[in-house]
Amino acid sequence: MSPFGPEFSPEHPVADFAADLIAVFQEAGFDADGIAAQLGPEYTEALYRGEPEAVALGARGDSQLEMLIRIFLLHEHVPATQLAAAVGARLATQLVDAHVAHTDSHGTVYIALDIRPHIIVGENRWVFSDVDASLIPHVPGPDHVLGVGAASLSLLQSTPCTPVETALDLGTGSGVQLLGQLKSAQHITATDVHPRALDLARATVAGAGASDRVELLEGSWFEPVADRRFDRIVANPPFVVGLPEVNHVYRDSGLDLDAASQLVISEAAEHLNPGGTAHLLAAWVHQGEESWQQRVASWLPDTGVAAWIIQRDVADPALYVSTWLKDESLDVRSEEGRARSRAWLEHFRANDVTGIGFGFVAIQRIGDDEPSDVLAEYMPQPIDDPLGPEVDEYFARVAWLRDNSALPIEKTRFQVRPGLAREDIALAADAQGFDREVLRLTRTEGPRWQHEVDEHLAAIVAGLNPHGLDLEDTIGLYAAAHGFDEEELLEAAKPLIVDLVRHGMIIPANLLEDN
After folding, report:
1. Hey, what domains does the chain have and what are their CATH numbers?
2. What is the pTM of this model?
């Protein structure tokens, strides 16, 4: 049996002294930057690779920070006097009384929770969660409350941080996503079906000094907020695609295949204020002859929403199953691992699942009678910049495209996006010289989209100026100079210009003025 995990009651008093504990951490420099400075680049990389002995070598001294690294990151067993030296006698007693610090058979103590520092939206924060298996050899139990992982970090990066009155963190877990909204939302409601998760989220919130702004509610999916609406919804739900069973509450919904993602995507808009947005992590199956784009889009209402569905990755069934079994520290070579793999893969085969996609879904509530505006696209390219600002801008761009009746697209002046690159790729010819392979426009930041264009569209884009001619006049000049029919050229160019606007390669001048 693992020495870590929910040995104590779901309701415990760690939130009562979380703020005092974090104050000690702050004074000692036990934050993301302080730890990196103490360990240095080599041992910091070892920390993220899950190599505890290297981390121990980087923190083998007697300073308070080094003791905190060994006790709270490596979960070393230490004399009770050393815990008291690290955090103070009063807090050491509180940690023991709350069963956050356990006493082993030798009389030494160790910390049975993860209380890890992270930089979230530019702020030092500490997340209270169950101990993961990255540095400690143990198997997380079915009630495991996850800390900060790759998925939660990616959702933080893809969620806007513009100011709003109210925000909902659906399925908060240990409270990671609500931390990302503390600088943006005046009031945050966080829900979870798991009382232990809410208990740890309460400690995370208290440690951030935000208890007066965060409301924590227990219940399934949207039930705790059934009659309420919010300006922003963030959700990292238990979206793992599999059998209708729950082996780990943080990732398994008990719903079949991708029904958990379907539930959140289909119901989110009902809980948004007009103009409000939802930002969701989700997964979906690739099934039979149905396209994944059609499948996910079908979960959205026919009217009243704008949605941007982004598939970031897709895995074949075998890879998907082995990845998630290894995530729970299960050896896929073991008898249990093989049995679990077989049941999962047979379920996929019986349901004609050929792949599993993963990504983000951003939804904005628009007019109830407006036809829904849905774009689903595959974006496997590396994205270095946070996606949140792009999501905000995307909704502004598509709103302009939906409602440009006062200023038709041909009468609009445009700004070419700063940093937009024109790439003219030529390959060596068989004999001599080079033959053009492709001409394209590429964004050098954000999603780094690429659009293949011809010489004519590239020249028209180059002629756009927010203080110069509108699109119709720009095309008219180009048509006259090159002997084209102006009306035919304009009609051919308009849908291509719309695509460039949608991906932010050119920006309407009046949209720049509005923002």
Report:
1. 14-130 (no CATH), 150-315+356-399 (3.40.50.150), 409-514 (3.30.390)
2. 0.91
